[in-house]
Known about the structure:
By secondary structure, this protein is an alpha+beta fold. It has one domain (3-67). It has 1 helix and 6 strands, in the order βββββαβ. The chain has one helix at residues 46-58, and strands spanning 3-4, 10-11, 16-18, 26-31, 36-42, 62-67. A 4-stranded antiparallel sheet has the order 3-5-4-6, covered by helices on one side.
Amino acid sequence: MKSIDLDGFNLSNDITELTSPSRGCLEVVIQRENNKVTRFFDSNDQKAFADLYNQASANPKVIMFSVV
Length: 68
């Protein structure tokens, strides 16, 4: 099941949000109304990871993203 979070990401159950970066995770920097937030995501499912990467590239709130 997918859920949409406050930054507009559709997060599947295969995606895990991390509290700190780990090797191979997706780092996403988001511009919110009053501040910038860095979020880290990881997944063992390559398709789910690729989908989140594509969402980051299309999301207007995202100012930078990369695989760490």
